[in-house]
Design brief:
With about 170 residues, this protein is of the alpha+beta class. The chain has 7 helices and 4 strands. It has a 4-stranded antiparallel sheet, sandwiched between helices. It starts with a helix and ends in a 7-residue tail after the last helix. The structure holds flavin mononucleotide (FMN).
């Protein structure tokens, strides 16, 4: 699968088969994060892979009751190990770095025939408590990973005319 096909075919998946995900596929997803770019190549990140069913059951409540978190056999937490650094552009590096890495993982999962769903609706303190994450670490994004049990149509997007300017802001 080429990169654009992965980008185009990816969907947020909220229904999963109970089928296990092969370890080689999990390894490849994590490798996609490991080699992702980051600001000044600082790589201030850590990724937690959760397979344990009882932990995933607990995570449902921490993820605002999103029950598919318990259904998918794998869950990834993308964490920042340093969250103060501002880039010269004024943006925090950690949210950008972790978002790049999570995007790479999600696209690689798509190539491997796996479903994901970026989760921003979660209670960080609860997630940290369940996963034993230290106080100074930030959890930027989460995703379940598993074989999809649904095949959603593409969700609507703004038209190119609405999002694109040429040469200058119009
Ligand atoms: C930053 C971010 C946070 C999101 N949080 C959630 C979430 O907590 N739960 C959920 O079901 N989907 C979540 N989504 C998925 C979006 O709802 C989804 O990407 C959007 O509706 C477009 O659908 P698609 O991903 O299938 O193209 C999130 C997506 C992003 C990028």
């Amino acid at each position: 699968m080429d990169v654009f096909t992965a980008i185009e075919s990816r969907r947020s998946i909220r229904k999963y088969l109970t089928k296990d995900v092969e370890q080689e596929k999990i390894d490849k997803i994590i490798e996609s994060a490991r080699i992702a770019p980051s600001a000044a190549n600082r790589q201030e990140w850590k990724f937690i892979i959760v397979k344990d069913q009882s932990t995933r059951d607990k995570l449902v409540e921490a993820c605002n009751g999103q029950s598919f978190v318990a259904q998918a056999p794998v869950f990834i937490a993308a964490c920042s190990t340093e969250s103060e650094k501002l880039m010269p552009c004024g943006q925090y590096a950690y949210t950008v770095d972790l978002s790049v890495a999570l995007s790479f993982m999600i696209l690689e999962a798509t190539e491997l025939g796996l479903g994901t769903c970026w989760l921003g609706a979660f209670n960080e303190e609860k997630v940290k408590s369940i996963l034993n994450i230290p106080e100074d670490i930030r959890v930027v994004g989460l995703t379940p990973v598993g074989y999809p049990d649904e095949n959603p149509d593409p969700r609507p997007r703004k038209s190119l005319e609405e999002i694109l300017n040429n040469e200058m802001w119009e």
